[in-house]
Amino acid sequence: MKALKYIALAAGLLCATGVTAQVDRSKLPAPGPAPEIKLGTYETFELKNGLKVIVVRNTKLPQVSYSLLIDRDPIVEGDKAGYVSLAGQLLRSGTSSRTKDQIDEEIDFIGASLSTSSTGVYGSSLSRHKEKLFALMADVVLNPSFPQAEFDRLLKQTKSGMASQKDNPQYIANRVQAKLLYGAEHPYGELNSEATLDNISLQDVQQYYQTYFKPNAAYLAIVGDITKKEAQKLANQYFGKWKKGTVPTHQYASPAPLQQPVIAVVDRPSSVQSIVQITHPIALKPADADVIPARLMNDILGGSDARLFNNLREAKGYTYGAYSSLDSDKLIGKFVAYANVRNAVTDSAVAEFMNELNRIRTEPVPQDELQKAKNFLTGSFARSLESPQTIASFALNTQRYGLDKNYYRDYLKKVAAVTPQDLQRVAQKYVQPDKAYILVVGNADEVAPGLSRFGKVSHFTAEGEPAKELSGDVDAQGVINNYLTAIGGEKKLAAVKDMRIVMKINFNGMEITNVQAKKLPGSYLNETSMNGQTMSKIIVADGKAFMAMGGQRQEVPAQQAAAIKIGAYPFPELMYAKEGITVELKGMEQVEGQEAYKLAIGAADGPKVIEYFAKESGLKLKTEGPTGTVLYKAYEEREGIKFPTKITMVTPQGALEGELTTLELNKGIAESVFN
Predict the structure, then answer these.
(1) pLDDT tens-digit series, residues 433-445
(2) Where are the beta strands (DSSP E) in 480-627?
(3) Distances (CA, A) of 63 to 52, 263, 376
């Protein structure tokens, strides 16, 4: 019996081996017909006031969600850029009958969620609370109170968030990209700033709401365990009296195409890697027939495991990932290929980007590579149908963009019909490296020379403005001398032998105290505390620098200690020559609306900090270092010398606001302070 089992097993293995040998696994199987798509059903109706409602019933889970969309044209906000976003945030801050806290309590009580934006409101809950949530949502949409206190809080929070991002290279790259692609007069190209936020009033926010929140410009998608009849009852009861009105429309000129590549470099001297973006606008609208072949082409070029990724990461090792995106838009779309690469290989990475962008334009995509992309897109599309939200999105897109009523039903048939010739045609139309911005944010001294092989290198500020050329009569030491004169003059500054400064710093509602004590010839204390408890302490004494934190004390490494020691002088700028500190003029930039000279400062063989000095006043406006950025504001004269009485410290954890509370000069600080 045991022998028979072994014989049967051997026979089974032989049969399996014989079947396997007949399949050539080196080739993809021949593509079959596009699968039949069975889209979920949806129903629609429209209220008398023009509100269009889409209902997707799904009883698998006892949940319901509501999504209200205001379908308006993009808006140019001008010198009040930022008010539209503020209006969306403020919408949830209270109604004529409920405070923000009451709304929060009612939402939490039923375990729901409710969020708002400048173009609508979204909420979800268990289906047994569907009417309660709908009533709350309608109250927020129809009766916002726009409280002044909440407006002031959100405005301050927005400024703080903006300040915390200012030195983030990715944030800078995205803002400069928008400005270059579309221009400051286009809704996609204008940038908000602290200056534009300061121009916004509560009335601007209210005016936006009153102008654009109209039912005849809105869609309401209802998804979940709810019938059309129930949806009609809720919509009529809570939104039936919403008054229709005329909503402004806007038209904008398309950006003029470039005639040759523009190499745009934004200097971030402290960057050890570069952000590279090769980008240009494209005229591709959501209803265009090219959308599907263009998506397949981009998946092959810059998807998660595609040509750019395999070249720049796998073959060359320049980056952790290289990708591209191609976005359609009813106004104007864009193409962008992007990666973060090491400074030393920035120009080589750009060369490989250009090679791949040109290759997909000039060489037909092999059939097996195209089929792989089709398979991936087909699977993604099929998986998306598992969500009832997808059905609502399809219905909404069909109405908003004027799609054919069978667009999504026939989607995979259109995918299957795409040929290599189609891909090459759309690549030549929508991927144009010879008419693109090659945007690089990084250390200009290290990367700009290599980038010159692609054309003339143009330098831009972090706000997307052309960097100003320096006149020959300005040098770095002259900028420093002007600063010393502006704050009091070298004679008065040299007379300061010791200094004690106390600042109160606010961070997320917490008050932190920072004390700095400086005494010639080189003693220094920097102590940070909260509620009387010391958090950290830096001390320079007897030529050595120490740091104490969490009960641990250690000597600071030599390179860091050098930077700390120069800061131990009451006015370090007086001692640069003596201490071997080099000062290099790097250009000019705008800082808080002021033209400023940009200086790189540090030991010849050590790390540099970047400091900005106002062209007009000579005062120091900003310092950028490896641990963050400090903005200096509200200079006031104390004992004949000007000091900043307010500062903003921008760190990866957020922005900290500091205010000078104590300043003592030549009071005879005891040496024991520096023990």
Answers:
(1) 999 999 999 999 8
(2) 498-507, 510-519, 523-530, 533-541, 544-549, 552-555, 581-591, 594-603, 609-614, 620-625
(3) 22, 51, 30
CATH number of the structural domain spanning residue 432: 3.30.830.10
Q: Where are the beta strands (DSSP E) in 234-332?
A: 262-267, 273-282, 319-327
> How far is residue 19's CA from residue 167's CA, in Å, rounded to a whole number?
62
Query: Is a pLDDT exceeding 50 seen at residue 1?
Result: no
Q: Is the peptide bond before 521 cis (omega within 30 degrees of 0)?
A: yes
Cα torsion for 531, 532, 538, 542, to the nearest 10°? 170
Is residue 467 included in any domain, yes or no?
no
Which structure tokens are listed for 40?
Answer: 């979920």
Give the C-alpha separation, 385 to 366, whole Å: 29
Contact 283, 334 (CB under 8 A): no
In a domain, 513, yes or no: yes
Instruction: Report how far apart the first and last C-alpha atoms of the chain are (Å, whole number).
Output: 91
Pair 624, 504 in one domain:
yes
- Cα separation, 391 vs 388, whole angstroms: 5
Domain holding 405, by residue range, is: 262-460
- Mark whether 541 and 666 lie in a shared domain: yes
Domain endpoint, select from 434, 460, 486: 460
The arithmetic mean of pLDDT across residues 98-115, rounded, is: 96
Over the stretch 360-407, which tens digit does the pLDDT of each residue have? Answer: 999 999 999 999 999 999 999 988 888 888 999 999 999 999 999 899
Beta-bridge partners for 116 = 121
Environment class of residue 442 by beta-carbon count within 10 Å: exposed (0-12), middle (13-18) or buried (19+)?
buried
The pair phi, psi for residue 415, each rounded to 5°, is -60, -45
C-alpha span between 670 and 590 (Å, rounded): 42
- The predicted model scores a pTM of 0.83
Report yes or no on 247 lying in a domain.
no
